[in-house]
TrEMBL record:
Keywords: Lyase, Signal. It comes from Allorhodopirellula solitaria. GO terms for molecular function: lyase activity. The keyword Signal applies. The lineage of its organism: Bacteria, Pseudomonadati, Planctomycetota, Planctomycetia, Pirellulales. Pfam families: NosD. This is Pectate lyase superfamily protein.
Amino acid sequence: MFLRHVVIVILSLLAGVPLHAQEAIDASEYDSLQAAADAIPSAGGVLRIPAGKYEITQPLRIKTGDTRVVGDGTATHLINQNTDGQPAILIENPDFAGKTTPSKDRLWRVSIANLRVTGNDKSGAGIEARYIEEIFVHGVTSSYHGGDGVKLHYCYEDPRISNNLFTYNKQTGLQIEACHDIIVSANQFEENQDGVRCIDSFNLAMSGNNLDDHLGDGVVIENTYGSVVASNMIEECQGWAIVLDRDCYGTTMSANVIAHDFAGGIDLRDAHGCAISANTFTIVKNAAIAVREPSASITISANNFSDTWIGNDPAGKPLQKRDDEPSRTEQNPNEATGVLLQNCEAVVVSGNLFSKLVTESVREEGRCRSILISGNGEVSRDDSK
């Protein structure tokens, strides 16, 4: 009997047949989305939500691990009509509800994919996950919420957020709290309050995202160690493109395009051991990079700081994309700025190009110590060639 069982197992594996198939739940066969979610067995399964509009007034609660919730793209539309600050989708072990630091039996491997979720000014987050390990959110559109587009709270182990669209949320497009080994890749963020906030976390890898028109800052990283922010487009934020604060250290910001941000480009408010390299700062206001007290041990190299000058015509007249004439929203639409050092320590500024700025290339304010400025190039705003 034992031998027969072993043979069956081997043949099943060779044939690719699952020994214990997880249950697939079709939400259309239940009276409500919550009833369908409640039908997922404790071992996990797949909740399929067909195309359609689903109005909800309470969160859709996902309570099981090894679970995938999947729709038919944006044709599957969850509309959160709650006005008490509740999320549209809440992923949480019900045994942890109300607890602040559960220590074991967290849910693992929950995936939300291929659906649209919207809210209102008084609703909470689009998707809120609490203490979920290896969460994966992809192919989701999350918009118009009173809270965040997606909120991850203590989703410590390997959260992945990719190929999503976060737009017009009253708070942050993506809020990350106390997570570890985080992937944020190939998402689009449009006109949220802030684009991404990563707080009290470790090892954020953020690349290939597009952030545009935020009412606050583009990316805010606080009390987070060992991260990389690379190959992102961050444009026209009312605040700063990137902010590092509260004892950030060991972070690299490289190969980003930071364009036309109104408060400034990269603001190191409290950052240490960080590298800023190979970024393009174009028509960034106030300061393209600010290194403030108590920030220290910063390298700034191989970056390009420029206005919109695109060269001269044969007659020698400067050609520009933008006019210097004041507009309704900007006194100087073509303004470009450089590096501001304020009471900071141990900073290297080397191998950068500063082109046609309205400020000094590198400004020092207060008592700056151990500053090395060398090998930079400069094109004066008054130069026509």
